[in-house]
Amino acid sequence: MGELGRRGVVLLAATGLVAPLALVAGATPAQAASCTKKTGPYQKRVEKFLGRPADGRQSPADCKAIRAFQNKHGIRPNIGYAGPVTWGVMDLMNKQKAVGKKPNKAGRCPVNRGRIACVNLTLQISWIQDGSRLVYGPVPVRTGRKGYQTRTGLKKIYWRNIDHVSTIYNVPMPYSQFFDGGQAFHSAGVSMWNPPGSHGCVNMTPKDARKYWSLLRTGDDVYIYGRKPGT
């Protein structure tokens, strides 16, 4: 693809890039919400996850702990209610932790292509492997929300820009490595568990995005599989 065509693809697909936190649906200032006294449907499981007494009944201390978790990860409404979104994030964290250092245990990511970046959309994790050898990760990622799903299949990194800025949202996207139109690995200034997800890109923490930048090169393979919860 020529330079003009390549840049055109990136610009046209910028809607696949992460939106600013302020654009997340339902986002409100944390201080504007009040703590609820209602017991949520996932109360006991949420209490257990947070190390609270798992009695299944809401208390002021429970609400404070739940609300702190919601504020940390951009979950709205942030009123300390143990609902499905909050539990969904916690459940995903538990599943990610259970993977340990064997992210490709099921053999879904190809081991016959040398160095490759793998993305498991179902578990929202990514890692780099070389053959069957784990090089880096697994690390949590934030992929495309409903309507903007990160596309699956075998890709290749075709363009890298360490200081890329989205022309749609005017949002910095450090360490961008594009692998499918406007979809790319890049650093994002939100929690990796911030719902509902990106506009198609694979968001990473600054630390992990920098590491991917140092380990990957133009032409390296990327393999994406699974389905993000809720899409």
UniProtKB/TrEMBL annotation:
A Pfam family recorded for this sequence: YkuD
Cell wall biogenesis/degradation in keyword set: yes
Organism domain of life: Bacteria
Domain annotation L,D-TPase catalytic: ranges: 115-225
PANTHER family (UniProt xref): EXPORTED PROTEIN, L,D-TRANSPEPTIDASE
Entry keyword annotation includes Disulfide bond: no
Active site: 186, 201
Signal sequence residues: 1-32
Pathway assigned in UniProt: Cell wall biogenesis; peptidoglycan biosynthesis
Lineage: Bacteria, Bacillati, Actinomycetota, Actinomycetes, Kitasatosporales
Keywords per UniProt: Cell shape, Cell wall biogenesis/degradation, Peptidoglycan synthesis, Signal, Transferase
Gene3D superfamilies: L,D-transpeptidase catalytic domain-like
Natural source organism: Streptomyces thermogriseus
Protein name: L,D-transpeptidase family protein
